[in-house]
Amino acid sequence: YDRLIAICWPLRYCTININLRMLLIIAGIWSLVVLLEIFPVIFAARLPYCSSREVQSCCCEHSPVYKLACTDTSFNRQLGTAKTLTALLGPLTFIIFTYAIVVVAVTRIASISQRWKAFHTCLTHLLLVLLYYMPVMVAYVLGNLRLIQNFDLYTAVLTASVTIPPMLNPIIY
Q1: What gap in Å lies between CA 80 and CA 159, rounded to an integer?
Q2: Which of these, 47, 39, 45, lies nearest to 83 by C-alpha position?
Q3: What is the pLDDT, as a whole number, of residue 88?
Q4: Helix (H) or strand (E) holding 24
Q5: How many CB atoms within 10 Å of residue 80?
Q6: pLDDT per position as a tens digit, 115-143
Q7: Where are the alpha helices (DSSP H) in 46-73?
Q8: Residue 2 CB neighbours (<10 A)
Q9: Where do the G-protein coupled receptors family 1 profile domain residues begin and end (predicted)?
């Protein structure tokens, strides 16, 4: 969003990205995150647990919790899949859409040096997006297709995918 405004409307950037608008965007995103997380927690809390209550994961996620239930958990699995796809593909679709608009706007710039400067501004962000989304998507696909049999390896891939990009953020920028 920031790159879109900065490149497509550079002279109006300060009037578009005001503090109130940023606060509303942040509040909206947090509200969506809470809504995405509250329903799986409610449905997992309603399940009967008759065997071990030890979660086999480094964090208490939806999937390792509902798998401990001693009843049919197909609804919880479908809910978890829908939540994960929404959380991954929603922002990724928005990022791709905004960058498509940015690419069209940049190709209309006459000067090659100005084009390069605009693309360089976006390149660092795209690198971080790829560093985050690629391992998470690969881990999700491999986990759903049951291609990763070792749960510790699966947990390590997911943990690295959400830890390494924020650590690289200051270095890349």
Answers
A1: 18
A2: 39
A3: 83
A4: helix 19-45
A5: 19
A6: 888 788 788 788 878 887 887 777 777 77
A7: 62-66
A8: 12
A9: 1-173
pLDDT at 58 over 90: no
CA-nearest of 73, 16, 85 to 46 is: 73
**Can you tell me the mean pLDDT for 26-53?**
86
CA angle 145, 60, 33 (to 5 degrees): 85
Contacts for 110 with CB less than 8 Å, ≥ 6 apart: none
Q: How far apart are CA 134 and CA 142, in angstroms?
A: 12
Residue-range domain boundaries for the chain: 1-171
Hey, what are 56's tokens?
């086999």
Cα dist from 62 to 36, 59, 65, 78, 126, whole Å: 11, 9, 5, 11, 29
Q: How far is CA 150 from CA 59, 62, 129, in A?
A: 17, 19, 27
Matching residue, tokens 């960058």 = 99
HSE-CB for 167 with a 13 A CA cutoff: 6
Q: How many Cα atoms are found within 13 Å in the side-chain-facing hemisphere of 68?
A: 17
